[in-house]
Design brief:
Length: 688
């Protein structure tokens, strides 16, 4: 007999007060620890091993910086903003994560999925404000200035409607929406860090995240097709954007710009070939080929000297001014408009950052602090939002490149930020003639990894059919409805799958493995011996209100006996026999004597005298679950069949005790509860 340990009762009030006093106290040591925890760079930078780490950090920083510049310019198309804002975002995110991040290898900055989510909100608000979403409306920024100008779009919006006094053009309003959205998302992330709500990420399973990323990749791909072929179609908004965009593309396919089509074909062939060669010979290359930069430089030179914009009307990036715009506080009135949109953005940004941080930490044998990562990515959004930047996250592709090029610490992030700063201060105007079709090619080729997930569907289906179904549903919802709703659908559907699996779990009758004290499912294994006069029932899920009926139905079906029906049948026979006895007839209606009838009342189905319930897979019981077990205990007892419980965990035992399953004083507990199935079977055999 195993005895439970007696728990020491804790005075919860005293415990909470002591914890509160400790949290609210402020000592120099505690203040120092707080600052060191809040800025992890103060812990690891003094211990930086310069000779060992510096060259790897410089190399990876330069490579990421070279990749970051063309990607930042390209992803501005997704966000519906000017390229300069993408460069600002890449610069500030790297600096802030260097100070606050706990991962040594993650590359934080502009990310295609986050840019898409920002762009969808920006486009919606521009439409509501009455702006034209046509990308090619002439801009009044020819002098390199980014000052507000009402002539930058045909429709000017007066901000007095939303509590602002100045009249502002399309570009000004777009970045105002983006910074407000970014600020609110960052505040959400910081609040989640303060209240330790990182557990929210647990509800985003791998299948949901993969499906969300793949569905969003289809949306990104669709949004770039018009740039690939050089047609002018309205930017679709709302649900079903993917389908509407493809309809508009095919309706306007005759207007395709031949120059853009040829440029796109050449760029895609070059980029894909370089990626494939890089993947094939990556073990021989010390760092990945800077193909995107080469393509952008070559395409810019060809476009500039070939006058592709003037001669062939090919759409180009336009003016990218140098320097920094004075910081500006995001408008509170705009924050109220995007507060709901910021929540999924905050969650997705955090989840991708933490999952990549954990992946790198596991690979290189160090630890991260998920809560600090929440603060880091939160302030990577809050602080840059004052400097005309938009939302950021960790990016898988750049993180993998960073680790493969010898990165040791986040010093590499500072090097990458310096490369971006060089472009911001001196080189940005060089990209004036860069065709948008080239940027679209870079975006589409960068989606290669996410789109290749479709090839993994058969293998995924072979491993787990339910996870594959979750992936398919999330992909479909993200692509065909919208990215935010797709994420919500994926989370809800994955939870429903868990609920359904606990509502209808596997059930089985067990047989004994010959010459052992172990028992297994007699439908799954051969050569199992049935235990005479004993039925062993296994239920592979928690027993709670949602699966109570399934538990009872499965039990009655597998044991081939419903105690309620059997009790009713016996009462019916007893009633008839009493009626015959009152008439003085000592033979029953079926011609048998009373003694023979009494034997007949016990049907052939009750070929067992004990029911053993294997509770090893029952992780918890709610009130309904306890009452269900009490119900079967009573019902089978009326048929002279004992019910024995085996392999209950302490939580289940406590629930049974509190529910009065073992009686008032739990005196019969030793005859009803056993720590192994074999003990219960032996006890049942010894019963008369």
């Amino acid at each position: 007999l195993m005895e439970r340990k007696t728990r020491v009762k804790i005075n919860r009030k005293e415990f909470m007060l002591a914890k509160l006093r400790k949290s609210c106290s402020c000592t120099p040591k505690k203040l120092k620890n707080f600052v060191m925890d809040f800025l992890p760079v103060l812990q690891w930078l003094p211990k930086y091993q310069c000779k060992e780490y510096i060259w790897g950090d410089i190399m990876s920083g330069l490579v990421i910086g070279i990749i970051l510049v063309p990607q930042a310019i390209a992803y501005s198309l997704l966000a519906g903003l000017k390229p300069i804002y993408s460069l600002y975002t890449s610069f500030f995110a790297n600096i802030i994560y260097f100070l606050m991040g706990t991962s040594r290898h993650v590359s934080v900055g502009i990310f295609s999925l986050i840019s898409l989510m920002v762009g969808q909100v920006v486009d919606r608000e521009l439409l509501l404000a009455g702006f034209d979403l046509n990308d090619d409306v002439p801009s009044a920024l020819g002098d390199g200035s980014l000052q507000n100008d009402s002539h930058s779009n045909r429709t000017a919006f007066n901000f007095t409607i939303v509590g602002m006094n100045a009249e502002c053009g399309k570009d000004c309003y777009a970045i105002g929406i983006a910074t407000a959205l970014t600020f609110v998302a960052g505040v959400y992330q910081v609040l989640m860090g303060i209240f330790r709500l990182g557990f929210v990420s647990m509800y985003l399973s791998e299948s949901v995240l993969d499906g969300f990323a793949t569905g969003a990749s289809l949306t990104i791909l669709t949004a770039q097709v018009k740039y690939l072929i050089g047609i002018k179609i309205p930017r679709s908004q709302g649900h079903g954007m993917l389908v509407i965009t493809w309809i508009n593309i095919f309706r306007n396919i005759s207007q395709a710009n031949l120059c853009d089509v040829i440029t796109s074909a050449i760029c895609i062939v070059v980029l894909v070939t370089a990626k494939e060669l890089g993947d094939r010979y990556k073990h021989k290359l010390k760092f990945p080929l800077p193909t995107e930069l080469v393509v952008i430089v070559a395409a810019t030179l060809v476009s500039h000297y070939g006058k592709l914009n003037e001669v062939y009307a090919s759409s180009v990036s336009g003016v990218i001014p140098t320097g920094f715009i004075p910081p500006k506080v995001p408008h509170f009135s705009l924050m109220l408009r995007v507060a709901v949109d910021a929540l999924p953005l905050a969650i997705v940004s955090f989840v991708f950052t933490v999952s990549l941080s954990e992946m790198c930490a596991k690979k290189y044998a160090y630890t991260i602090r998920a809560n600090q990562e929440m603060f880091a990515v939160g302030f990577c959004n809050i602080i840059p939002s004052f400097f005309h930047s938009f939302a950021t996250s960790a990016a898988l592709a750049k993180t993998l490149v960073k680790t493969s090029t010898g990165c040791q610490t986040q010093v590499s992030g500072v090097i990458s930020a310096m490369v971006v700063l060089l472009v911001l201060l001196f080189l940005a105007p060089v990209f004036y003639s860069l065709q948008k079709s080239v940027l679209a090619c870079i975006i589409i080729v960068s989606l290669r990894g996410a789109l290749q997930k479709f090839r993994d569907v058969p293998a995924r289906y072979h491993v787990n059919k339910v996870d594959t179904l979750i992936w398919v549903v999330t992909v479909s919802a993200s692509a065909l409805i919208s990215t935010e709703i797709g994420l919500l659908v994926g989370i809800v559907f994955s939870m429903l799958c868990i609920i359904v699996r606990t509502q209808r779990p596997r059930t089985a009758l067990l047989g004994q493995i010959q010459d052992t004290s172990f028992y297994e499912d007699d439908l799954e294994y051969e050569n199992l011996s049935p235990v005479p006069k004993v039925k062993i029932f296994r239920f592979e899920a928690p027993l709670y209100y949602a699966n109570k009926n399934y538990f009872l139905k499965s039990l009655y079906r597998l044991t081939n006996l419903d105690p309620n029906l059997e009790a009713a049948r016996r009462k019916k026979y007893e009633k008839k026999e009493k009626q015959h006895l009152k008439k003085g007839d000592h033979t029953t209606v079926n011609g048998l004597g009373i003694r023979e009838t009494a034997l007949q009342l016990v049907p052939n189905q009750t070929d067992f005298q004990a029911l053993v319930v294997d509770c090893s897979s029952i992780s918890f019981l709610d009130t309904t679950g306890v009452n269900t077990l009490k119900e079967i205990l009573k019902d089978y007892k009326d048929l002279n069949i004992s019910v024995l419980l085996a392999c209950c965990n302490p939580s289940v035992i406590d629930s049974l005790k509190r529910g009065g399953y073992f009686g008032k004083d739990s005196g019969s507990m030793q005859e009803m509860l056993f720590y192994s199935i074999h003990n219960a079977v032996q006890f049942a055999k010894d019963q008369k």
